[in-house]
Structure formats: C-alpha cells, structure tokens
Amino acid sequence: MTVETRADIRLTQLHIDGEFVDASNAATFEVFNPATGALLARVAEGGAEDVERAVAAARSAGQIWGEMDVFERLRLLRRAADLLRQRSEELALVESLDSGKPLSETRTYPDLTAECLEYFGEVARFARSHVVPTPSGFLNYTLRQPFGVVGAIIPWNFPLPFCGAKCGPILAAGNTVVLKPAEQTPLSALLFAEACRDAGLPDGVVNVVPGMGPTAGRAIVEHPNVAMISFTGSTDVGREIGSEAGRRLKPVVLELGGKAPNIVFADAQLDQAATTALYMVAYNQGQVCSAGTRLLVERSIHDEFIDRVVTQARTARVGDPLDPDTQIGAVISPVQLQRIQDYVEVGRQEGAELVAGGSTPAVPGHDEGWYYQPTIFRGVESRMRIAQEEIFGPVLSVLPFENEEEAVRIANDVMYGLSAAIWTRDVSRAHRLAERIEAGIVFVNTMNDGRGLGSPFGGWKQSGIGLENGLEGFLACTRLKTVILNLDAPTPTL
Ligand code: NAP
Ligand code: MG
C-alpha cells in the first residue's frame, strides 16, 4: 500500500477533556487521500467507552461554560476564530489531503469556520428573551437556556465547515459538544478542537470522537446525558437517528439529503444559467446536498441549452487537488466512486442518453486516485432512479418541461425538499414558483450562492427537520423556559 508522505499529520487521537488521547481499547482506523488512494493516517477509533468519557467531560465542563458570562464566551469564540485563521494553511492542506477537494476550495474553509464561531457568538449576545403580558401584579418572561451536552454528527462533504456550522450555535448558546466527524474525514475536526482548546475554551467544552457511525455515532445518540442531537448526513441515517432520539424524546436537528431542481425558463439569462447548471455537479465533485442535480429546461431552448452545458463539461479540468489549475478534485472514496458508476449504468439502462462524461478520467501521476468526469444525461424522465435518488457525485440529469405547471409538478415529484432554483427574467413567475416549490430554500437566478450565515437553512419533506443558520439555527440549540414572578398580586385563597 502506498503511504502518503506529503503531509505530516500531527493530530490523530481523540480529543477528550482538553487532551488528545488514544481510544480506550487502542483501536485505530485508516484514513486515505482520495487524490492518490494512499494511506494518510491511522486515527484513533472511538467507541462507546470513549463516548462515555467524552460525555462525562462535556457534562462537567457545561457547569463552567453554560454559566459563563455570554460576553466572555464570545471573547473565547473570537479567539478560537483567530487561531483558525492563523492556522489556515495547515487546515486547508489537511482538509484537501483528507477529502480530495481542490486546495483552492479548502483554503476558504478556515475563514468560513471562524465566521461561524464569531457570528453565533454575536447572535448569542443579541438574542433577547421576551416579556409576556400577564394579569397585573405578575411579571412573566422567558429564558433561553442551553440543553447541556449536545451530540453533533457530521458528514464528509464539508468536514471543517461543518465543525463551525454545528459548534458555532451549540457553543454560543452555552452547550458543550461531543462531535463525531465522518470516518472518511476525521482530521480537520481534531485541528478545530485544538484551536478551541488553545484559545482558552475550558477543557471538555469541545470533544471530538472520530469513529464509526454505528458504534461511536450511535453511542452519542443513545447516551442519556446527551440532551440534543444535531446531525447532517443522509436521509437513511437521519431516519435512524430520528427514531432513536424519538424513543428518548431527545430534540434533533436533521439536515439530510436532496435532489434539487434547477429550473431554467426560455427567458432566462442563459449564459449564467448554463455555467451554474454545470457548477452544480462539478463543484465539490457534485458531493453537495443542495446541488441542483436535476436540471429542468423549458422545451423551446432544451437542445441549445444542453449543448452549452455539455461544452463546458468537456473543458472542466479534473485533476490533482493540490494543482492550482484543478477545478474538480477527487471523489471521497472507492465506495462513492463505485456508487457513481453504478448510477451511470442505471441511467443508461433506464434509457437516458449520456451526452457528457460517463467515465473516470486519466489524471497523470494519480492512477490510484478516485476521480470521475462531470457527467450529463438527457432524456431523463421523472420516474427514473437517476431523477429520484441522490447520487452524490458529478452526475446531472436533464428533464424537459413544457410550461410552468409542468415545471412545478416535476420539481416537487421527489421525496426530498432541500433546495431549488428558478431562472427567469419574469419577476412574477419567480415569486409564484418560489411559493409553490416544496423546498427549504429557493434561489432565483442563482443557486447555492448568496447564502449568508444569517439565512436560515433546513430541508422540507425527507430532507430534514429543524433549521440551521440564522437566529433560528441558534434558537434550535436552546430550550425555552417561562418564568412567572409574583410582584404584588394577592395570593389566591380557597
Ligand atoms: P451518512 O452516511 O449519513 O453519515 C453521516 C454521519 O453519520 C457520519 O459521521 C456517519 O458515520 C454517521 N452515522 C452513520 N450511521 C450512524 C448511526 N447509525 N448512528 C449515528 N451516526 C451514524 O452521510 P455521508 O455519506 O457522510 O454524507 C452524505 C450525505 O449527507 C448526503 O445524503 C448529503 O445529502 C447529506 N448532507 C446533507 C446536508 C444538509 O445540510 N442537508 C449537508 C451535507 C450533506 P460514518 O462516517 O462512520 O459513516
Ligand atoms: Mg480521507
């Protein structure tokens, strides 16, 4: 087996109670570089016992963190944000090696992650309770309080940004966290934990337990002292976690899969629409939950529009993630690569027409890496599996539509409802469709751009429960208490 030598991976142990430690049974698992297929690191594999230790540490740290002045918490979160920025080169390189993402992309992550800590720290500072009108003589107000220990379980497609997106609101609200990164990409979470510790967050506030979903992940979900679960991942695992949590009456935020429609009308700005259409399956190798993987095109421009997208797909540069010219890096794993290949075969058998890609490209010097070309199917019908199921790779399914009514019908004809986009110059139509499409976020004349940390984000239908980002995302990490004080009301008598 080839062993990666380009990076010296410093942190490979669990992070519990402010220390980097081995798993209690000394277990480890292997982590690979998707760009080369080489072994990158052996990482401590946490199990139920380690989760037990992490939860105990988080619980006792909660007494300090949860009661700390909100301004002091903000100060520490800001310091952690500064350290993430100072360490951005190491973070970006480790993230790229671990995930196969172009370095040009991962270089943006430390700042994005830092912003999450700062933003939610500020939200906590400004989030107000309210006073409720009551009969005279009473004062009724509400308090927003932390849950205590929150379990965060994240996927591999944006490893470091999800550390920020999860831990930002969890920590700012005064909770402590036990975080399980994905088994494919555990490394940046450990660097994140180190930055939090070095910034002065008390030991036990941020615990990271790399490991497997069915063991470490499950132990977090089932632990009686984990009061809430914030999960991002597939709909199948989300259902499992949701039902486990339901049996324990544990609140959950579940950010799950998608099969988003990207709808292009004939009156749209077609250059921009075509560039974005390809970007949806090329960016991050198509491994994006909210990507417009179903391209719906109005019949009158259908053929011409596909030609534009196909032309761009043929010139997209798939290659070494560390090469600055690379636009599309490696997919996460051989399992994922096989899944993509299987879906392409399914598409062919279902009768869709392959018009771009459909194979693995040659990447010189990286013969053992896991790459796939941007791939486009036309003639896709909504009933086909490649129009219904999340592939999570660079595969675009194009479906024609006749009119607005049919566009809406096809757009809503999936179990998911995460995001959608509409391309049109007709403002009234944009409003009409934005209302009628079943999705948690709808873009007009853009897709997946223009979202800030303030934009609440959450899936409809089988794409999830609850919200992230914005004030709503912060509030989801708090529990509300009503307090009623008798000021000078007479006490009721029998
Ligand atoms: P996944 O297989 O669902 O895994 C997500 C996380 O859950 C991983 O850490 C995984 O551990 C863990 N896990 C697996 N089984 C578990 C169990 N029984 N109990 C507790 N934890 C368990 O998802 P993925 O393949 O990593 O990521 C891709 C999926 O995430 C796609 O469906 C994508 O749409 C979705 N996603 C959604 C959003 C959103 O915001 N809505 C954003 C990004 C991605 P292992 O690593 O060991 O499997
Ligand atoms: Mg990896």
Give an overview in words.
The protein is α/β, with parallel strands linked by helices. It has two domains: 14-256 and 463-481, Aldehyde Dehydrogenase, Chain A, domain 1; 261-444, Aldehyde Dehydrogenase, Chain A, domain 2 (3-Layer(aba) Sandwich), CATH 3.40.309. Helix content is 38%, strand content 21%. The chain is built from 16 helices and 22 strands. The chain has helices at residues 48-65, 70-86, 88-99, 103-106, 109-126, 159-172, 187-198, 213-222, 235-247, 270-282, 302-315, 334-350, 385-388, 404-411, 427-436, 470-475; strands spanning 14-16, 19-21, 28-33, 38-44, 131-132, 138-146, 149-153, 176-180, 206-208, 226-232, 252-255, 261-264, 294-298, 353-356, 375-378, 395-401, 416-417, 419-423, 441-444, 460-461, 464-465, 478-486. The strands form six sheets. A seven-stranded mixed sheet has the order 14-15-16-13-12-18-19, with helices on both faces. Strands 9-8-7-10-11-21 form a six-stranded mixed sheet, with helices on both faces. Strands 5-6-22 form a three-stranded antiparallel sheet, with no helix packed on it. Strand 3 and strand 4 form a beta hairpin. Helix 5 runs parallel beside helix 6. It is globular. It binds NADP nicotinamide-adenine-dinucleotide phosphate (NAP) and magnesium ion. Residues 31-32, 34, 98-99, 184-185 line the site of magnesium ion.
